[in-house]
Design brief:
There is one protein chain. This protein is mainly α. The chain is 55% helix and 5% strand. The chain has helices at 5-12, 19-24, 33-42, 73-109, and strands at residues 28-30, 51-53. It is flat and about 55 Å long.
């Protein structure tokens, strides 16, 4: 799915999204509406399907985006942590399903 572990770590530091990111990655996640809008502005034609909100992968929580935790005190941080953990679990399952499907398709072509 991703090109290399080092690339994931680099992205975790909050670097700006580049055109190369759209070409090299299968999935680009936004935490909120503002970041999604900025990503959509930079997105080359034909790559919009790669843009998703992290919370789309939530299984237990129903939130359109990850809110800014600074406005909710301690509870705000707890809520954001719950959302991100839930979304990451769902994302991991999504990746597993995609890899399984790719494996099955590769087996059929052999």
């Amino acid at each position: 799915f991703w090109t290399a572990y080092e690339d994931l770590v680099r992205k975790a530091r909050g670097n700006k999204l580049t055109v190369d990111d759209f070409a090299h990655h299968d999935l680009l996640l936004a935490m909120d509406w503002d970041n999604l809008a900025l990503a959509e502005q930079r997105c080359p034609s034909g790559h919009h399907r790669k843009l998703r909100r992290l919370t789309e992968f939530c299984r237990r929580h129903d939130s359109p985006v990850v809110p800014d935790p600074y406005y909710g005190g301690h509870e705000g941080f707890e809520h954001v942590l719950d959302l991100v953990e839930d979304a990451c679990e769902g994302l991991l399952e999504h990746v597993r399903q995609r890899l399984k499907l790719q494996s099955q398709l590769s087996g059929e072509q052999a």
